[in-house]
Amino acid sequence: MKIAFLDRDGTLIWEPPETKQVDSLGKLRILPGVIEGLRTLLEDGFELVMVSNQDGIGSPTFSKEGFEIPQNEFLSQLEREGITFRSIFVCPHKEAEKCTCRKPKTGLVDVFLQEENIDLASSLMVGDRETDRMFAESIGVRFISMETNGRFPRFSAEKRQTKETDIEAFVNLDGSGKADVYTGIGFFDHMLELLTKHALIDLTLKANGDLNVDEHHTVEDTGLVLGSLFSKALGDKRGIERYGFWVPMDEALAYVVVDLSGRPYFVFEGEWKREYVGELPTELVSHFFESLAQTLKCNLHMKIERGENDHHKIEALFKGLGRALRQAFRQSPYECGIPSTKGSL
Predict the structure, then answer these.
(1) Above 90 in pLDDT, residue 109?
(2) 68 contact partners, CB below 8 Å, separation of at least 6
(3) Phi and psi of 253, rounded to 5°?
(4) Domains 2-153 and 156-329 alike in fold
(5) Which of 7, 23, 128, 202 is catalytic?
(6) In sequence order, which ranges of the chain are alpha helices (DSSP H)?
(7) pLDDT digits (tens, 9 = 90+) for 215-245
(8) Peptide bond preceding 109: is omega within 30 degrees of 0, i.e. cis?
(9) Residues 6 or more apart in contact with residue 55 via CB below 8 angstroms
(10) With 70 as the cut, is the pLDDT of residue 344 above it?
């Protein structure tokens, strides 16, 4: 069983900056992306567990009723969307009370962790505070950070194992450009790090492939996994920009245009002077992008307009794709629904 541990205030619902307490129905606001995000987690097989600090429930400044009325309404609204929590843990103490259950301490969930068969390596914690990060670290799960009262992050994980490759990956589309990548092909790793940085995503990817045969399966399957990850994290693509493009690299100029249309199509124009750059066969560069386009279900057009150095040309393509995806993945303040006249992508 894998668990998505979730902070409440500032992560799932709006946290009033002045009081930091949701103590009436008038203060209850579900944050953007929460319904879609929780639904995606459930579809991916996660059980939902809320873990929340609530300062001084039952005190003169925060009555028990003041907590329960908006909390019950929040849970009812989620339930109408088909979203329920396996467990809800609430610490009612103030920090000065030095209890054993207030995050980042783990007292709220210690018994739960002992009694349930939880796959900690596949579980995660979503929160907006340093205490949430410390809590996640203490119980041994991945931490996904978000801005207080911001949009719920879009993320996905995937494991793909065949006789040729074994790949495990995680992506957060609303990250900061952090990459932890290993494929066994050094130059390919570097290009994936560039893509991650320029797309402003967070990517963890470990690929073990049959490099004793050649590089083909590792590069191809990495593209398939990345495209699938992006597609799952995007969900129904509500509110995204959809289109993106870019980028020069010294003397090299590459055009990269993407449309997250739901229709896979790939076009590439370019020539190579070398058979390899580092340990990466140049013939596999376009094949990687084609594989990614297939599982992301996007239109992807790439053209090397000019360039002398194959390293620079490849780098321009990866940076260009990163910048194009950054733009296409971005949530638009002007796009309330799905950016298509068809109503779906």
Answers:
(1) yes
(2) none
(3) -130, 125
(4) no
(5) 7
(6) 34-43, 64-80, 110-115, 130-139, 186-199, 216-234, 283-296, 310-329
(7) 999 999 999 999 999 999 888 777 777 877 7
(8) no
(9) 20, 21, 62, 93, 94, 95
(10) no
Task: Look at strands 179-182 and 202-209 and give their pairing.
Answer: parallel
Per-chain mean pLDDT for the chain: 91
Provide the terminal-to-terminal Cα distance of the chain, rounded to the nearest Å: 31
Q: Collapsing DSSP states into helix, strand and coil, what is residue 305?
A: strand
Task: Report the SS3 class of residue 203.
Answer: strand
* Full strand arrangement of the beta sheet holding 2-6: 87-91, 46-53, 2-6, 124-127, 142-145
CATH class as words, domain 156-329:
alpha beta
Quick one: CATH architecture of 2-153? 3-Layer(aba) Sandwich (3.40)
- Convert the pLDDT of each residue in 288-326 to its tens digit: 999 999 999 999 999 998 889 999 999 999 999 999 999
- HSE of 344 in the Cβ direction (CA atoms, 13 Å)? 0
Residue 123 has pLDDT above 70, yes or no: yes
Indicate if 7 belongs to the active site: yes
250 is catalytic: no
C-alpha span between 245 and 327 (Å, rounded): 8
3-state secondary structure of 205: strand
Annotated catalytic residue within 9, 55, 259, 310:
9
**Which residues, 6 or more positions from 312, have their beta carbon under 8 angstroms from its beta carbon?**
249, 250, 251, 252
Q: Hey, is 289 helix, strand or coil? A: helix
For the chain, the domains span 2-153, 156-329
